[in-house]
Structures are given as C-alpha cells and as structure tokens.
C-alpha cells in the first residue's frame, strides 16, 4: 500500500478524534462505542494497539474506526487519512517501533496473514472466568496454573475479534497457547525448561530431567503430587516436533523420565529419544506412560481418576 500512515497514526489521538474521553489512569479511555463508566479501554502506545476489557475486543487503528463508525476497512483507512497530517507526521517521528508494524490489509483492503507473535495484544496474569473454569475442569488448581502460566490475548484474523488463551512461556520468548475452545498454537516455537526451584531456567539443578509433551501434563504432574515446584528439572516440548531442540538440555542429565502422549507421535518421539541415547551421553530413559495406559495423556488420566475419587 503506497501510504500506510493510517497504521502509524497514534491510537490515543485517534480515540480522541472518535470522541473517546480519557480515563483517570494513564493510557486508559472510556470506550467510544458503548456505555463505559469505568474507562475500561486501554492502549499500548508502543505497539499502537487498544483493548476494551469490558467488551472483550481490541485491535489496531482500522479495527477501532470500523467499530466506532460501522464502516468498511477501506472507509476506515480513508477516515484516518483525512485527519490532520501533523498528527501522522508526529506518529512517524515519535513512534520508531511502529515502523516495524505490518499493515493488516492488502491493496484491496482485505485482511492478510500476520504471524501470531505479531498479533499479541496483552499478556497478563490469569483472570478471565472462562480460562479459570477451564483450568479447574482439567483438574489443575488455579494457584498452580497462575504460577507458571499467563493470560495471552491475541488479535483474531476477523476484524474486531480477539481471543483469550492460557499461555505457557518457552525459552525463545514465545508462548504455547491453549484455550477452552480447543485452540492450540504457539506464538514462537520452542521448548520450556524449568528448574527445581520452579523457575524458567536453562541451567540444570538436578541429574534427572522429567520430559513432557505439553504444559497441562506438566501441571498435572505437579497437581497429582500436591507440589508447587518440580522434584527434578523439567523440559516441556510444547510439541514433539521440538524434540531435537531439547537435546542440548537433555545431555546435561543422566536420567530422563518421559511422560509423552499415548499416540503414534508420542511413541515415535520416545523411540527417537532412545535412538539418540549415545548422543545424549547414555542416560537412563524411563517411559512413564504405563501410568496412564488407556488414556491419551497424563491429564486425561488425571481427570478420570479425580472423577472416580469424587464418586
């Protein structure tokens, strides 16, 4: 697009132009498209995005104009470009981070693919009721999940839509995401390593490492033993495709206890691990899937066991 200054226009100024009233707190506004006594719309000036906590939606400049004016994406672009050019020049000069932002529209005003890592709106402590209810339904104490997970709000591909996810941070600074709807993804692929103090760390603190495929299995392992911190070092693959990325960390241990899924991919990962024993300096490899034989994974087994105990 020849002129993408609409994407760089400061979202705070755009809100004012659309009639939004500033809140008492910095970077907060009263929502311009609904009755909002609590100024529950917040902005991130660095990333030039907004999120309305009361409505549960957020996005960029075009999303905001479309929501307020009930117009198309192309009309939203035209509206922003019609605003005083001085503001647009200020945005270009004072918001260097915005130069790296990618416009979410092509030349026809249609949505284009943006990497998930570029669509994160907010990372915060777990608080949304639907996420907390889901965590409890999986047999995990909320306090335990809150220790290791965040709430990650991601902008959807559909204009004006956003989604709450449980996010588990990995060593690359990304998140493995999971939501009650069954959505699973990652903002940036990578493994997660945790030490015996319960800290995200790549330094080993034990001669034994416990290996999980997903973070809910890791949380289940802690929950079933009523522990807040691991009894060994931990590596969560976040996907079996990340197995080779875990080799340098696994090599630092002499025993690997595996809690991989009871499916073809999980079994293949275990066999791959055994075939790499020499490269891993010959550790003892223990398959713990016998514990949850007949179930997809450790968490599925845990849910069934808890239900039986409650009967």
Written account of the structure:
The chain has 311 residues and is α+β, with helices and mostly antiparallel strands. It folds into three domains: 5-112, Zinc finger, CHC2-typedomain (DNA Primase, Chain A, Alpha-Beta Complex); 120-180, no CATH class; 192-310, Dna Topoisomerase Vi A Subunit, Chain: A, domain 2 (3-Layer(aba) Sandwich), CATH 3.40.1360.10. It is built from eleven helices and 14 strands. A hairpin with a 5-residue loop joins β8 and β9 (184-186). α3 (61-69) packs across α4 (73-82).
Q: Report how far apart the termini are.
A: 62 Å
Per DSSP, what share of the residues sits in E-state strands of 2 or more residues? 15-25%
Low-confidence stretches: 86-113
Number of strands: 14
List keywords for this structure.
DNA Primase, Chain A, 5-stranded antiparallel sheet, 5-stranded mixed sheet, alpha+beta, Dna Topoisomerase Vi A Subunit, Chain: A, domain 2, 311 residues, 11 helices
Describe this structure in a few short sentences.
The protein has helices at 5-8, 11-17, 61-69, 73-82, 85-94, 129-137, 142-148, 215-224, 247-250, 264-275, 298-310, and strands spanning 28-29, 41-44, 49-52, 57-59, 120-124, 149-155, 162-169, 175-178, 184-186, 192-194, 208-212, 233-236, 255-259, 284-287.
SSE layout and pairing:
Elements: H1 5-8, H2 11-17, E1 28-29, E2 41-44, E3 49-52, E4 57-59, H3 61-69, H4 73-82, H5 85-94, E5 120-124, H6 129-137, H7 142-148, E6 149-155, E7 162-169, E8 175-178, E9 184-186, E10 192-194, E11 208-212, H8 215-224, E12 233-236, H9 247-250, E13 255-259, H10 264-275, E14 284-287, H11 298-310
Parallel strand pairs: 11-12, 11-13, 13-14
Antiparallel strand pairs: 1-2, 2-3, 3-4, 5-6, 6-7, 7-8, 8-9, 10-12
Helix pairs in contact: 3-4
């Amino acid at each position: 697009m020849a002129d993408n200054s609409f994407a760089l226009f400061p979202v705070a100024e755009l809100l004012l132009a659309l009639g939004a009233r500033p809140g008492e707190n910095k970077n907060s506004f009263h929502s311009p498209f609904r009755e909002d006594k609590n100024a529950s719309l917040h902005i991130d000036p660095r990333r030039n995005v907004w999120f309305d906590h009361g409505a549960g939606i957020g996005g960029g400049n075009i999303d905001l104009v479309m929501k307020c004016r009930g117009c198309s994406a192309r009309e939203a672009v035209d509206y922003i470009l019609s605003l005083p050019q001085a503001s647009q020049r200020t945005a270009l000069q004072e918001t260097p981070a915005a130069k790296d932002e990618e416009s979410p529209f092509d030349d026809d005003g249609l949505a284009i693919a943006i990497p998930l890592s570029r669509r994160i709106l907010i990372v915060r402590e777990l608080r949304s009721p639907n996420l907390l209810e889901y965590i409890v339904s999986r047999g995990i104490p909320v306090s335990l999940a809150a220790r290791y997970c965040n709430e990650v709000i991601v902008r959807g591909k559909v204009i004006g839509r956003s989604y709450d996810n449980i996010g588990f941070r990995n060593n690359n600074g990304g998140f493995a995401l999971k939501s009650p709807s069954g959505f699973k993804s990652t903002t940036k692929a990578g493994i997660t390593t945790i030490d015996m103090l319960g800290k995200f760390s790549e330094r080993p603190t034990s001669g034994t490492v416990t290996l999980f495929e997903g973070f809910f299995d890791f949380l289940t392992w802690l929950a079933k033993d009523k522990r807040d911190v691991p009894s060994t070092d931990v590596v969560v693959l976040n996907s079996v495709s990340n197995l080779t990325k875990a080799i340098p960390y696994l090599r630092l241990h002499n025993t690997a206890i595996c809690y991989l899924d009871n499916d073809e991919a999980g079994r293949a990962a275990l066999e791959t691990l055994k075939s790499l024993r020499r490269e891993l300096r010959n550790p003892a490899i223990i398959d713990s899937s016998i514990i949850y034989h007949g179930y997809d994974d450790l968490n599925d087994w845990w849910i069934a066991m808890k239900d039986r105990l409650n009967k």
